[in-house]
Amino acid sequence: EKQILKLTHPELAEEVLGTATIKALFEAKGEKVAGAKVDKGILSRGDLVHIRRAEANLGDGRIKSLHKGKEAVDSVKVGDEFGAIISPQVAFEVGDVIIAVRKLPE
After folding, report:
1. pTM of the model
2. Alpha carbons 86 and 84: distance in angstroms, whole number
3. Environment class of residue 52 by beta-carbon count within 10 Å: exposed (0-12), middle (13-18) or buried (19+)?
4. Is 43 exposed, middle or buried (0-12, 13-18, 19+ CB in 10 A)?
5. Rg of the chain, C-alpha, whole Å
């Protein structure tokens, strides 16, 4: 039964580490950057992320680069504004949500 749930609801096999709302889009060194603000939890460089618009999952990736202002940082917490490069590139827009997750052991 657990296997069926994981197939139909893969998010059940994950723990949400943090969420952020995309507030702006820009480019740096030819890559699309999401300018966002952390709503809950913590997001860290290397985290697996889902990009969501309403209830639709636009794509998955990892946080390749994380900056607060000009400074490269390892993580951001509630209230922080930051810029993130997601790899592979996902077609995100202002208002989309970044959800950082950790896979749970089976």
Report:
1. 0.86
2. 6
3. middle
4. buried
5. 14
Say which amino acid occupies 35: G
pLDDT(104) > 90: no
Q: Are 51 and 59 in contact (CB under 8 A)?
A: yes
User: What are the CA-CA distances from residue 93 to residues 7, 24, 52, 105 (Å)?
Assistant: 28, 8, 10, 32
Nearest alpha-carbon partner for 17 in 53, 55, 46: 46
Tokens of 17: 């580490």
Q: Which residues of 57-82 are buried (b: 16+ CB within 10 A; e: fewer)?
A: eeeebebebbbeeeeeeebbeeebeb
Nearest CA to 43 out of 26, 64, 57 is that of: 64
Cα(37)–Cα(40) distance, integer angstroms: 9
Q: Are 65 and 45 in contact (CB under 8 A)?
A: yes
Residue 10 pLDDT:
53
